[in-house]
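Q: I'm building a small set of examples for a reading group on sequence design. Run inverse folding on the following structure and report the sequence directly after it, with nothing in between.
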């Protein structure tokens, strides 16, 4: 009978496979320094391995592994070595190599908030900001400023959540939110609907603001659909979910382009293609976007339209 091998990276350590033993058991038996902070109980995730070759020879995830993998957003090729057996030639990489790595991954596993070890997803990214915000802050008292911003973010946050979006970051006068985190196929539509809802809610918000300070806000929104990396960054209580990549930068630039184009709601071509049967668009523009090569087609969304 052919003797299959488990190859453990880094180090290209080759170990004969026992199909009844887990990857962790096999690895430890061969004296590989394989992290297993919870003792193999699918609680810490420090034993995780990235499967480089031989995905087809792995046992399916058991319930314990499914639970932790779901919580941490593992992609299919990231497995808990303590729960996985193999029955063919498999090559794996241990990403958790030292005490600092163990502390980072164990604290993520214990965290009750949404976390992700880093995965590529196609999302719709919405940036919103407040026009002439600096002038507003210069004239507002500190209490008024914080009170008004909290109310603004509460109102706009509800519009995002109602459309299954997630707010990722606040930037003083703006925020970044994403749609499609739970693999909603219509994330572009949800993002655009969220933008339309924000403009609708802005009218009520401005009534309040006029009474409070005799002022009103104008907002601008930019949306782009594209591939991003979603991952949890930072440590302990300062950790947070982040989205990174070129698509995020482009969405931010589209929001800024509203200023030069005298528009208030723009989407990229990739978003437009996914929503064109559902929303009314106005003008379209072919523009150079700051910091990006080439021309980009942008489409104005009419905020009176609805999905
Ligand atoms: S050793 Fe803790 S999850 Fe595998």
């Amino acid at each position: 009978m052919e003797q299959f091998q488990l190859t453990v990276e880094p180090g290209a350590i080759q170990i004969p496979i026992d199909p009844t033993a887990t990857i962790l058991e096999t690895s430890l038996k061969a004296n590989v320094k394989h992290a297993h902070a919870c003792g193999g109980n699918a609680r810490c995730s420090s034993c995780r391995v990235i499967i480089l070759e031989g995905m087809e020879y792995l046992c399916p995830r058991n319930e314990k592994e499914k639970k932790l993998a779901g919580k941490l957003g593992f992609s299919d090729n990231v497995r808990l070595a303590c729960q996985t057996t193999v029955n063919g030639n498999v090559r794996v990489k241990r990403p958790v190599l030292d005490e600092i790595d163990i502390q980072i991954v164990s604290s993520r596993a214990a965290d009750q908030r949404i976390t992700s070890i880093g995965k590529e997803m196609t999302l719709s990214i919405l940036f919103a900001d407040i026009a002439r915000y600096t002038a507003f802050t210069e004239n507002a008292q500190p209490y008024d400023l914080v009170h008004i911003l909290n109310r603004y973010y509460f109102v706009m946050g509800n519009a995002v959540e109602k459309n299954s979006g997630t707010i990722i970051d606040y930037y003083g006068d703006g925020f970044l939110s994403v749609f499609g985190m739970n693999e909603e196929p219509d994330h572009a539509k949800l993002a655009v609907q969220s933008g339309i809802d924000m403009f609708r809610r802005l009218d009520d918000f401005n009534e309040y603001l006029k009474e409070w300070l005799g002022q009103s806000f104008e907002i601008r929104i930019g949306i782009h659909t594209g591939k991003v990396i979603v991952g949890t960054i930072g440590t302990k209580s300062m950790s947070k979910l982040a989205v990174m990549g070129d698509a995020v930068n482009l969405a931010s630039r589209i929001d800024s382009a509203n200023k030069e184009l005298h528009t208030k709601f723009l989407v990229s071509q990739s978003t437009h293609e996914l929503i064109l049967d559902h929303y009314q668009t106005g003008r379209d523009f072919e523009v150079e976007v700051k910091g990006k090569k080439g021309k980009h087609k942008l489409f104005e969304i009419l905020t009176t339209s609805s999905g």
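The chain has two domains: 5-110, 119-301.
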